Fold this protein.
Amino acid sequence: MKKKKSNLSELMQFAGNHKFLTYSSWILSVISATLALVPFVYIFFIIKEVIEVAPDFSNATHIVFNGWMAVAFALGSIIVYFGALMCSHLSAFRIAGNMRKTTMNHISELPLGFIGEAGSGKVRRIVNESSRATETFLAHQLPDMAGAIATPIGMIIMLFLFDWRFGLISLVPVVVGFLCMFKMAGPKMAEDMKKYNSALEDMNNQAVEYVRGVPVVKTFNQTVHSFKKFQGSIDNYYKFCVSYCKKCRGPMLWFTMLINSAFAFLITLALILAGGEAIEQKVLLNFIFYVIFTPIITTALTKVMYMSENGMIVADALERIHSILDLKPLPEAEKSQKPKDNSVEFDGVSFRYSNAQTDALQGVTFKVNAGQTVAFVGPSGGGKTTVAGLISRFWDALEGSVKIGGVDVKEIRHEDLMNEVAYVFQDSRLLKTSILENVRLSNPNASESEVLEALRKAQCDDIIAKLPNGIHTVIGTKGVYLSGGEQQRIAIARVMLKNAPIIILDEATAFADPENEALVQKAFTELAKDKTVIMIAHRLTTVKNADKIFVLKDGKIEDAGTHNELVKNGSMYAKMWKDYQTSISWKVGGVK
Ligand code: ADP
């Protein structure tokens, strides 16, 4: 119960100045639930009159009036309920909307590395689905809950108003029904629910793995049995569901039977009260009233029953949202310091990813002078991408300092830092908008001719020429397809337009065709003119001419020097270079 309360107050934090909408919905729902009980009293009046005047029914003069009153109260209850739903929906959509906005605003303040670490799909799911999960709860379940609490109170009063003996006996199945329900929905149920959710999640994850792995299965001619994990998760889920259903079957059976069986108790009591004689008219009347009235109990209790389950769904949703909101943005300097030049320096930098067991970088120290072009090479996982990420401050170093122009990146405000450093990602994503807008993303004030100039320098003329509407062509529309290399060139044009003095190039690992590769290299060369360039070289094609090459292995700088120096000293780079030469000759051999 305590937990539910805190869920609600947490949700209310997102309501801003519109909390009154939620509260109004509850009040209206209580009024509606109370109004809904009144028609039963009028129906009772009708029956009473009919029995009292029998057999001369012409004396029953109040039937029509009472009938209309019953209709009026029923209608009134429905109208008030609509009002309640309107308020609750307005508040629910507002709260879900605010939740999304707050989370998205928070994400925009988080270091860029967060999305990479958490996975963009997962973040999207949390933002969308978790806020949606609260919608149903706030829009329907909360007002219904207020009504469902009001109904039994009104019911109990009414039950004792007419004949306390019938009132008492019709409460017996309710109480026993409740006991059965608590047996089922107690703390054990919350635990089972958690198990159920994790079994489901496990199955979903395995299913995704399975689908991802289909190409491998097909290529190597494996059967589905190679996905033992997937099958295991299905079996697990199946076993859990069956045993869970079996556990619930008994209590559920009793609960349903009891709350629907009030009439049996009433008949028994009526027979006892009659004591074998003809039943008294007053007793008969009361008996009829209770037979009409008690079915409402069923409806009210069924609603109460599903409440705990919904509370759990909301608690889960809030927990997920908090997994994002609890992450802290990197601290921003009060006043941005200006870098003295365009050099980049690491001084004893160590870094570890939050979910990793070992350091990604250990005491890395190097300096890149302004205007130099350097390359980072080394085996995969050596730490090249991490070095690049730290320069752009996707994360902060755990130890040591990262400096640009002699100033620690922590002392430069995010916006200013982004004007200093431009990052060309390996898989540069283009948005589903025109080429013009895609390029202009980096500098919204750029004119069309400036965009065209950037595209020209980035070797994109051939791409623009083949597109139906030139730079106004929207990417992703029917028939407009750009290859990986072409997308990369457009992305280079984007960075070109930004004109930042320090450029980080994350070189693509593979190219489909040599022609594209040559153009991309040419675009890189244009981009690098008069800039400080830090190249992350996954292959060695372009590093030969770099002013300096750093060899990164296991998070440490193993070696540094020019190409010639490194080849001569017979180090790891020399071996890598040799292997690379061999692989090229293989390729050439293959073409022959
Ligand atoms: P490279 O670019 O040289 O291939 P990275 O900088 O990507 O190397 O990786 C350095 C180390 O950090 C590796 O051991 C890698 O497994 C680890 N790593 C990289 N990204 C993450 C991440 N998001 N979470 C945890 N560990 C990571």
